[in-house]
Amino acid sequence: MAKVRLQDVAEVAGVSMKTVSNVVRNRPIVRPETRERVERVIKDLGYRPNLRGRSLATGRTGMIALAFPDLRVPYFAELAHVVSDVAAERGYRLLIEETGGTVEGERAIASAAEAGIVDGVLFQPARLSGTEIAMHRLDVPMVLLGEGPAPLSVDRVMADNVAGATLVTQHLAALGRRRIGFLGHEERERSSTSDIRLLGYQAGLEASGLALDMSLLISSESVSPLHAANALRAALDAGLQIDGLVCRDDQAAVGALRALADHGISVPDQVAVTGWDDIDMAAFTLPSLTSLRVDTRQLAARALDLLAERIGGFDGLGRHELVDFSLVVRESAPTS
After folding, report:
1. For residue 183, what is the DSSP state?
2. Helix, coil or strand: residue 171
3. How far lies 241's CA from each of 184, 216, 267, 274, in Å?
4. What are the distances in angstroms from CA 7 to CA 16, 55, 93, 127, 312?
5. 204-233 residue pLDDT tens
6. Which DSSP letter does residue 191 get?
7. CA distance 89 to 83
8. Which of 169, 184, 253, 314 has the least C-beta neighbours within 10 A?
């Protein structure tokens, strides 16, 4: 009779493998009713936990974790799919974590909460500083994704967000736009992503001979199409005059297209709009969205390369590497 596996228990109990692991480890974070159900399945199936069985035999679990702030964000969901695909090609299974973009959730990842379960972690932080990440004891090899702060001791793979924001701003300026706004950065507790892209926006204005006008910066309550649309509607109602718009991401750009349409403002005739991430829906908005595309497959492959080296014993200083990006020009900001 085949040996009962942890994933068999998870499937029968209707929970994740992580939840079964938390029950086996007697962690208090599992709800009593869930714990009772999992323990009953463990008994019924005759499962004998041995979290380190494979590790003792091979030194590996064959699983890596991928931690994002919020999987409702289309870019993160699409990137997770790419990472899963590349990881599978290399013989890894993927455990996806969602931190909620909270300090507590990110500290749980940085403090190696998955020790004994995964061989390594790919982690995109939103709140933790590089210093705090470095202060945690990294029992599990880790590679950071994205433009957030990274300590000297940890590998990080990202696109150059300053250069990317400079590129999209210069693109709008080259179309003859002179009142170019920026939409979608958070009103409070700006993320490092917003700060870096704002810096690139300013650099793009300067490179194009345009002055920075603080009245053209349109913050929103949070990063979402709804809040970006609401923020732009309010700014337009207050008399904002723009002819170009650099959006923090495609979510903000989708909100911008709706707000502009609601005000009877033609895109791109009156206002040219750019997004960031080139999510799948960007090609199907009306008009279709000009957006900055990061080479996510290159990002995933390089991050997994670095993680494999860490898993294999590499203990040098962190490697901070850049991947390619390009501007996908569509109807919202065409070149002609």
Report:
1. E
2. helix
3. 17, 8, 14, 17
4. 8, 16, 12, 32, 26
5. 999 999 999 999 999 999 999 999 999 999
6. -
7. 10
8. 314
Indicate the residue type of 45. Answer: L
Q: Return all residues near 300 (Cβ < 8 A) that are at least 6 apart.
A: 79, 82, 83, 85, 86, 87
Sign of CA dihedral 230, 236, 238, 244: positive
- Provide φ and ψ at 297, rounded to 5°: -70, -40
Contact predicate 84/62, CB 8 Å: no
> Would you give the distance in Å from CA 98 to the centre of its chain?
10
pLDDT, tens digit (0-9, with 9 covering 90-100), for 115-145: 668 889 999 998 888 888 887 756 789 999 9
Position 51 confidence tier, pLDDT thresholds 50, 70, 90 = very low
Across the chain, mean pLDDT equals 90
Q: Rounded to whole angstroms, what are the CA distances from 107 to 113, 130, 197? A: 9, 12, 25
Using DSSP's 3-state secondary structure scheme, residue 42 falls into: helix
Q: For 266-290, what is the mean pLDDT? A: 98
Q: Smallest Cα–Cα separation from 218: which of 204, 228, 208?
A: 228
Among residues 291, 182, 328, which one has the least CA distance to residue 245?
Answer: 182
Q: Are 60 and 91 in contact, with CB atoms under 8 Å apart?
A: no
